[in-house]
Amino acid sequence: MGMFETKGHVAFCSLASVAVMFxxxxxxxxxxxxxxxxxxxxxxxxxxxxxxxxxxxDSGHYQVMSSRGYNxxxxxxxxxxxxxxxxxxxxxxxxxxxIACNSLDYDPDLQHIPFFAVSSRFFNSLTSCFYxxxxxxxxxxxxxxSYQHLTFYPVMCxxxxxxxxxxxxxxxxxxxxxxxxxxxxxxxxxWTWFPLLLSYLPNWPERFMFVLTSFAVTSIQHIxxxxxxxxxxxxxxxxxxxxxxxKQTSGTLDIACSPWMDWFFGGLQFQLEHHLFPRLPRCxxxxxxxVVKDLCKKHNLPYRSLSFWDANVSTIKTLRTAAMQARDxxxxxxxxxxxxxxxxxx
Length: 346
Fold this sequence. Notes:
The chain is an all-alpha fold. It has helices spanning 10-30, 35-61, 68-83, 87-99, 139-145, 148-157, 159-171, 180-199, 204-227, 244-250, 262-265, 271-276, 285-298, 308-327, 337-342; strands at 127-128, 133-134, 254-256, 305-307.
């Protein structure tokens, strides 16, 4: 059908919107004195990070520019320079996520101990085959996971801090990192312009407000990533070659929305379609969706598509179920005084 060859103008439009938003942010901070203008600039910066991440995601899956060199440059600019998150770190984790979608011990996108656990199987201290270490379900993890359905959104508001740390840990590790020098240079660009921008704000309270607001807006994207997989089916072990298609359909969840929202969701509302055809350009995902639906129906495979609200409800239910299981006294995780004090009855 020619869908792989027809890429549309999504990358150009997204980059243009990023450039416009960056100009608005600079004007709001440098030329305006109102605290409301600074607040608005922070919100625009959050949207800029969201759209910039989508371009980095697209360029990581398929070539959005005219050559591989320009495509790599687009990745470094949209990822490292503008968001402060290394494209090398993203490729490292994202490739594993696509290969072993929703495998508890192989998919790094589900391994968030001690803050989150989508399944009680994590309570057995699974060994992460991706990170090569045990995911210890210790007293701290048990306490935090017991309230994860309440802390989910607050944690998402500051989730970028973890991504910055993960970036630095990888780039300065002994692991072989493709284009390490370029990635480090891109990160240095981010940690030059972002603190410099903050320095033009009049005082520390406004700087704190600016950072927190921009992070909170970007949390919408972090939440979206969780909605696509947290409430879907999970399993332990690597996917077998013959059941890869089934694992992708059972481990993903689409977000139903109108076409005018495609820009906001970056195409990832068609998560199943994206997982089945990772190199398919973003503008083709809505077109291939009916084909995927028919294929799933033909082979009696799940195709879950929920509204943004219902997807949030489903995710919170999944987190709450695991939280209640973590509180169960029948679990053998060791307790401490803090745990006993918070959960005292009578």
